[in-house]
Amino acid sequence: MSDASAVHSSPSSLSYFRWAFIVTVAGLALGALVGWLYTGTVPGTLSIFFICAVLAVLEISLSFDNAVVNANKLKTMTPLWQRRFLTWGILIAVFGMRIVFPLAIVVVAAGIGPIAALDLAINRPHDYAAIMHEAHLGIAAFGGSFLMMVALAYFFDKDKDIHWVKPIERRLSRAADVRGIEITFVLLMIVLFTKLIGPERGGEFMTAAIWGLVTFLVVDVLRHMLDRADKGLDAAARGGMGAFLYLEVLDASFSFDGVIGAFALTQNLFVIAIGLGIGAMYVRSMTIMLVEKGTLAEYRYLEHGAFYAIFILGVIMYCQTMVHIPEVVTGLGGAVLIGIALFSSIRWNRRHGNGD
């Protein structure tokens, strides 16, 4: 990127959030309308309006590490595929994961058709929420495995030469020569939690967790195959379909926690979609800002903090199959880790003369 374009993109970080602000206003207005249609009262309308706002904050707090990881992958993609991810990807994230995905779970779990599932969501939201909660174990097991593999693949990398928590990360980097070590670690975690959950639902956990592991491996293989095929093309024709596919599955895994956690506040599918959709727009804006401003390069430990947060989120999703862990704890934990990583990066820059 030229110096002129860098100067042009630097005026204000708020400019990156213009569309997020627009969607916030439109979403909260729509939430108020949904509240009025469902309750017909001012207090009921205000209550749903407030829930939409809380869900948006919940999504932002849970997904900041997702924005960092997205930016880390996006910076290697061509501008064409960056735009595709930031346009198609947000549609898939908002409509696919916040509306279609919960309906699909109810369709499979209850053995009913999509129209019947939508009718259930509209007219019998408590029954709809009960089915979603029943499916929580499998969703958490699947998402936990996938996210742990994402984090471990980052740390078990023999070419990784920047280490934040040096005693741990240097050893993990050297251990990357042991073939399949991250897979072995996740399999041991699966066996441990299967034992802890017990025979009644342990089999269900193990099946879903292994599918999460297999999905990561399949997506990773496809990503490398597609990206290798891209390298055979000229620079103008290169796409990044492999990275796009990887990011979409990663986004879906991050969405599991927020979608399930939202049912603790409301059983209304449309309120959940509005609130989490608003939050998803802020995550998109943060991703664009991180890529265009070169924040990851400027703050060397920021992505380390994000991947630690991803690993912990994966473990928490496993733990949530046995005990309830408030989403506030999950969100704050990730934010604190990233905040510490940011502080460490700023301190490193000052020590090495890279500060302002």
Automatic annotation (TrEMBL):
The keyword Ubl conjugation does not apply. The chain crosses the membrane at residues 16-38, 44-64, 85-115, 135-156, 176-193, 205-223, 235-254, 260-284, 305-323, 329-348. Keywords: Membrane, Transmembrane, Transmembrane helix. InterPro entries: DUF475 (IPR007427). Pfam families: DUF475. It comes from the Bacteria. This is DUF475 domain-containing protein. The lineage of its organism: Bacteria, Pseudomonadati, Pseudomonadota, Alphaproteobacteria, Rhodobacterales.
